[in-house]
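Lecture 7 notes: from sequence to structure.

We start with a single chain of 238 residues. Read the sequence below before looking at the structure.
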Amino acid sequence: MTGRLVALTVDALDPERLARFWGGLLGWEVTDDPRGGIALLPADDTGFSIRFAPTTERKCVPDQMHPDLTSSSPEDQRRTVARALELGGRHIDIGQRPEEGHVVLADPEGNEFCVIEPGNQFLADCGFLGALASDGSQEVGWFWSRALGWPLVWDQDQETAIRSPHGGPKITWGGYPAKEKAPKNRLHFDLAPDGDQQAEVDRLLALGATRVDIGQGDVPWVVLADPDGNEFCVLERA
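Now the structure, written as tokens:
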């Protein structure tokens, strides 16, 4: 038994505005989320939704995880960048070198993302949302491979990547985090068990997860952290 990745949740000061931005950029349908906030439903083989949950906490450090969007040509890359700027995004400098081909942008609340140059072989068979690129240790990539039942598609030089057998974006970890971690990550995974919620929690704890308290109070989901301390939620059975 494995958990299913059902959503990437993004904390947002203005969930509706952020949903309009990402829905317009990805071409995904905007809908109300039953747990509150706004959700985007994928229009491709991405096997999870993107959920925008209300928060009053402003972004204070770079995100631990960011989307990588793919391009089919230089013109396609320019169109994606122009569309992002039109929707309210902006260029940012995170120390990228001029010779690097990807373009680094931020959404209206400052969440980083990249528009990858055409010809990138690592994402060649991925869709427009090519990857969720993460800071993280090799061990955390192994953890998520076992947690989701997704095979490792890269495991070299302390870098790991996994991908669903059904396709969709890759999730990558590029080495041990060097950046300061926020008290609570603005982006986190939501998992739904195929069976009993407590049995799934016990399985994830045995794989190396830990229980954490982020002030969630009395909620029907269980908050855990992966071996690098990144929070995620185990929902009730779908």
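The chain has one domain: 4-173. Keep this in mind for problem set 3.
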